[in-house]
Amino acid sequence: MVSLDCHTSRAGDATLVELLVTADTPTRVRIENCLDGPVWPPRKQSVPAEGWDEDGFEGEVRDRLVLGYATPAEPADTPARIVTTEPATDTDSDLTPRDLVRSLGDSRPPRDAVERNPDDAVVQPEAVTDWLDAVECRLDAADRLASADSVSEANAAITAVGETADILALREQLRADRRTLTRVRARCEALSERTATVEIPVDTLSRLV
Amino acid sequence: MIVAVIAGKGGVGKSTVALNLAAELDGVVVDADLSMADLPPGSGPDLHDVLAGRATPLEAVTDAGSVRILPCGRSLAGARAADPTTLGTALDAVASQYGRVVVDCPAGLSSDAGLPLLAADACVLVTRPTEAALAAAMRARELARAVETPLARVVLNRAQSMEPEPIAAALGAPVVRLPESTSLARAQHHGRPVGVVAPDCPASDRFAELAAAVHSAIRS
């Protein structure tokens, strides 16, 4: 059950309308002005307060709700009336972080302000790059030798490497590459873990200097 | 308990109040100024990493000597990658572990200032006795009202001689005045609470008073 009590008073050239809406259960109501003039709603930050529009107010009533607006129209017996009512839904009143961002704006730096992913800016020492590229070349040659499924392809792959002795040397070199890569990988992992955990007490040291 | 330290504009002493309030409450201070962090940076994961899902909130809490801190990253890329809507969950996790959390919020009225307010149980509003700072403080007060976070105290910084009553009436909360203090400025420069560096300094007493008031305001 929703009820509406109205009271009007005249202030200068305007009529002030006070409304008291009461509801037994949480209810969403639509209230419209019945006076012969525009609604001058309460304002916040120079825009109509939440729920107000040019014809009246729409919002939730939980027990009691006090509203007020002004209009240039003359007072009358029924200044406003309830147009629609429907049960309120709880989700309307819970402000979520996303609602807040929606109303206040995304304050993160714009995408254009971020030049590129910092992971892309990792600089690999030149000697390491050269060595890894050389290993990759040897692997490509070995792949061509292994995957040749015709005489002409095999001949082309062998010519690219050299003679039979060179093929044997390539096999030995790749075995050595594998041992080296395994050892380097272990050392890289150990050093990476150390860089992640080491802490230099910069603030403390700077106070000592 | 989560306390948001807010200010309408920058440069009024918000980070100083946050650090010292956290020290007095024996809690964790979280630097939530995602784009312009001001509290000491750490050497491990920071709030950017937490809000981007690269670290858990508890992993990012470090003991910076006399106060625990969850620092914030300094890079634009980090600020861009962080999802600020997950801040509330992160703050809840820190509060569950450490009990008391003080959040150094960004100045202004954007969503990055509103989100920690939304997650907080109460807020402390820092301002200075200047027209610009007080006007901005009124707007920050409105933001706190809009997200329904109660204002526990107003801190009037560098204003020992000013009468607090008009400001308390305008902002709707009791005022704690902080005196101008060289010791406080020096302590903050080194990222340390003044109560540790200069316990006899008048500012130390004000922070103890502020912490007691905030604590009782939240419990009541």
Protein model, in words:
- The complex is a heterodimer of chains A (209) and B (220).
- Chain A has helices spanning 97-104, 126-147, 151-161, 164-197, 202-208, and strands at residues 2-11, 14-23, 27-33, 43-44, 47-48, 56-61, 64-71, 80-87.
- With 209 residues, chain A is an alpha+beta fold.
- In chain A, the strands form three sheets. A three-stranded antiparallel β-sheet of chain A has the order 1-2-7, with no helix packed on it. Chain A has a three-stranded antiparallel β-sheet with strand order 6-3-8, with no helix packed on it.
- The radius of gyration of chain A is 39 Å and the shape is elongated.
- The relative contact order of chain A is 0.10.
- The longest helix of chain B has 18 residues, at 202-219.
- In chain B, a hairpin with a 4-residue loop joins strand 3 and strand 4.
- Chain B is of the alpha/beta class and 220 residues long.
- Chain B starts with a strand and ends with a helix.
- Chain B has a single domain (2-219), classed as Rossmann fold, CATH 3.40.50.300.
- The chains are: A alpha+beta (209), B alpha/beta (220).
Structural features:
heterodimer, A: 209 residues, alpha+beta, three-stranded antiparallel sheet, B: 220 residues, alpha/beta, Rossmann fold, eight-stranded mixed sheet, 8 strands, globular
Brief description of this entry?
Chain A is α+β, with helices and mostly antiparallel strands.
List the helices and strands and how they pair.
The complex is a heterodimer of chains A (209) and B (220).
Chain A: E1 2-11, E2 14-23, E3 27-33, E4 43-44, E5 47-48, E6 56-61, E7 64-71, E8 80-87, H1 97-104, H2 126-147, H3 151-161, H4 164-197, H5 202-208
Antiparallel strand pairs in A: 1-2, 2-7, 3-6, 3-8, 4-5
Chain B: E1 2-6, H1 14-25, E2 28-31, H2 47-51, H3 57-60, E3 62-63, E4 68-70, H4 76-81, H5 87-98, E5 101-104, H6 111-119, E6 122-127, H7 131-146, E7 151-157, H8 165-171, E8 175-178, H9 182-189, H10 194-197, H11 202-219
Parallel strand pairs in B: 1-5, 1-6, 2-4, 2-5, 6-7, 7-8
Antiparallel strand pairs in B: 3-4
Helix pairs in contact in B: 1-11, 5-6
